[in-house]
Design brief:
Length: 195
């Protein structure tokens, strides 16, 4: 690596030595997002009056591989800081595990001989469908013939409701349930007794 990771799309692709690698990383990310149908392109005339599309940006990161190589990673991030509570989203939270709760779950699993599984979902934030209509300005590097924006079908990194949406996906693959009120989010685990 010559220097720090680029901070903008134009800086990345104009890099004299690694510009092509960053361009390939952007293409890989766009292909990945297209494969899971995260967005549709719509004309500006399809955006409801009074709605301003949310900005987006590219985040670039070099990652050291175990074998000594370098991976060039580009991630498209939506400007969730522009979203307004009650207008663009209703509920937001970041699920975290209390250490005591985790210890209790592990102890119960051992005592009752429950099978305990761990999983890592690489695109966890990108799989849940977006509730409502969310419009995003085209990211830098996407060229179109006429003015367009992206209408999100699925969540993107940076979206305020991404954690809530991610949790809803998790509950469909497990016996977890999520409930919330104004100040608390509760996770519960249901287990049926063996026959």
């Amino acid at each position: 690596m010559d220097s720090a990771d680029p901070v903008s799309y134009w800086e990345a692709i104009a890099h004299p030595r690694f510009g092509q690698k960053w361009s390939d990383a952007v293409d890989e990310e766009l292909r990945s997002l297209a494969e899971i149908s995260t967005r549709d392109y719509v004309g500006l005339e399809d955006v409801p009056a009074g709605v301003t599309p949310i900005s987006s940006k590219w985040v670039f990161k070099t990652k050291q591989l175990p074998g000594g190589g370098i991976r060039y990673k580009a991630r498209l991030v939506i400007g969730g800081f522009e979203q307004q509570a009650g207008v663009d989203f209703d509920v937001t939270f970041a699920p975290v595990a209390n250490l005591q709760s985790l210890r209790m779950m592990l102890a119960l699993a051992v005592v009752h001989d429950w099978e305990f599984k761990q999983m890592d979902v690489v695109t966890a934030f990108l799989n849940p469908k977006v509730d409502g209509d969310v419009y995003m300005a085209l990211p830098q590097g996407i060229e179109v013939d006429k003015p367009q924006v992206c209408k999100l079908r699925k969540s993107l990194y940076g979206l305020k409701q991404a954690s809530v949406s991610g949790m809803s996906i998790l509950t469909t693959f497990s016996d977890l349930s999520v409930s919330s009120d104004a100040s608390t989010v509760r996770l519960s685990f249901s287990r049926q007794a063996p026959p």
